[in-house]
Inverse folding.
């Protein structure tokens, strides 16, 4: 995969910002209120866009949110065309991003393992 140009990086940021605003305005009950757009990747020809979405809820609500977003793709694309002035308005594909949940789970596992180990202060007191 080739490196993003400055222009493409700037477009990704603008599309991410616009998608975040549009998703917040949606009134679909399936879309969880704690939904955020983590990353947007627009192809250099501006035809397609992958939006990685993170949902702070359980797995079933996250899947419902993705279903709701997929059903509203046409409306979202229309709103995106109004907010971001691009030559082509990209087709948006929503992907559930679970990296935040994965990081929290790994952090918890590390904390569970390290709580049994003696801390540095305890080792110094013993000496």
């Amino acid at each position: 995969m080739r490196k993003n140009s400055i222009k493409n990086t700037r477009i990704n940021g603008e599309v991410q910002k616009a998608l975040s605003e549009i998703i917040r305005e949606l009134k679909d009950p399936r879309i969880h209120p704690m939904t955020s757009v983590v990353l947007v990747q627009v192809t250099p020809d501006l035809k397609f866009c992958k939006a990685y979405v993170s949902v702070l809820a359980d797995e079933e609500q996250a899947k419902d949110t993705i279903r709701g977003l997929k059903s509203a793709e046409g409306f979202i694309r229309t709103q995106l065309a109004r907010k971001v002035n691009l030559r082509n308005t990209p087709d948006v594909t929503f992907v559930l991003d679970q990296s935040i949940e994965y990081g929290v789970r790994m952090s918890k596992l590390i904390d569970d393992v390290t709580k049994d180990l003696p801390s540095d202060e305890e080792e110094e007191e013993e000496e």
Remarks:
- Residues 6-115 form a domain with the GMP Synthetase; Chain A, domain 3 fold (CATH 3.30.300.20).
- The helical segments are 6-25, 59-71, 73-83, 99-114, 120-126.
- The beta strands are 35-42, 48-55, 91-96.
